[in-house]
Amino acid sequence: VLTAVSVSQKKHKLWVVYSPGLEPNADDLRLLKDFHQAGTRDFFLHYQPKYSLSDNAVKGAEALLRWQHPQLGLVPPSKFIPLLEETGFVTQVTRWVITETIAMMARHNLCRTGLVISINVSTRDLTELGFVSFMRHAVKDIDPHCIQLEITETGLIDDSERALYVLSKMNDLGISCSVDDFGTGNSSLSYLSKFPVSEIKLDRSYVYDIANNERNHKIVKSTIELAHTLGLSVTAEGVEEHETVEILRDMKCETIQGFVFSRPIPESDLIEFLKSSPKLKASGEA
Ligand code: C2E
Ligand code: MG
Ligand code: MG
Ligand code: MG
Fold it and tell me: What residue stretches are annotated with the EAL domain (predicted)?
């Protein structure tokens, strides 16, 4: 049963149609209403560095959206992104994130350093008809090879025909694609590898406790092996402990991301961080 809810605003009414899975609650409605009254000044990006275990160097960073709400303070993306996805408003947000990230890269000449910056896109973005031409225009003044799109596993299977089309267009442009939150969507790696993606990002829920959880250790190890067999590289997200880094290094995981290396940080901190060329110690090093 679809429920139509109207959010009254001073000038106009906003109709939101909820799918059966989403229970409209007062908090969500307030966030949606506030989103429409918010200006871009209420949003900003943090960037979380990624570390290459194979090169022992910073590999790039991921742009992560932040909403500074005037009354509620910092609202986490896990609270508002699903709402924006559900209502379709996420597409305008994604365009803003892409434009801001590319402007940041241009300001600091990041492409010249060979770093790759990744941006999260949702299923809604892939099904939006103007997305391919928007991307073509967005990367016209930078090297597209330094942009990567992160698409969740469900984003690929919800409308796989469309996803296949958009991803191959991104490949033509030189933009690489990664499967985000891998392991949470019940699809197989062999199926996902049919999409033109170059990397999978192992979800934090599998990665964080591999030092103590034998089951997750086995899942992560065999997933990395299968990914390599299929020609995909692997990023492990949510790495918090040095012990985990060493295990992932032994498993030949190419890239890690997590608090052990860096939290998501503002632009100015990212630039300082990149200049300092930080290294994670390899096993046996003092
Ligand atoms: P994600 O893309 O899987 O991003 C990773 C999330 O894990 C980020 O949360 C990051 O801060 C967090 N994280 C990273 N390392 C660690 C760690 O070592 N330990 C722990 N506990 N957490 C870690 P964040 O920034 O709250 O974002 C949550 C999700 O919201 C993202 O998951 C992504 O799906 C979505 N999101 C964020 N920004 C955007 C955006 O611009 N567009 C879209 N479509 N989605 C976004
Ligand atoms: Mg991501
Ligand atoms: Mg992820
Ligand atoms: Mg995740």
Answer: 25-278
CB distance 148 to 118 below 8 Å: yes
Sign, CA dihedral 190-194-199-205, equals: negative
Determine the distance separating the centroid of ligand 4 and the alpha carbon of 180, expressed in angstroms. 7
In this prediction, the answer to ipTM > 0.95 reads yes
pTM of the model: 0.92
Residue having the nearest C-alpha atom to atom 11 of ligand 1:
264
Phi/psi at 132 (5° precision)? -65, -45
> Is 75 a pocket residue for ligand 1 (Cβ < 6 Å)?
no
| CA-closest residue to ligand 1 atom 21 | 238
Instruction: For residue range 97-125, list pLDDT tens digits in order.
Output: 999 999 999 999 999 888 999 999 998 99
Cα distances (Å, whole numbers) of residue 94 to 75, 125, 196, 228, 272 = 17, 7, 21, 30, 26
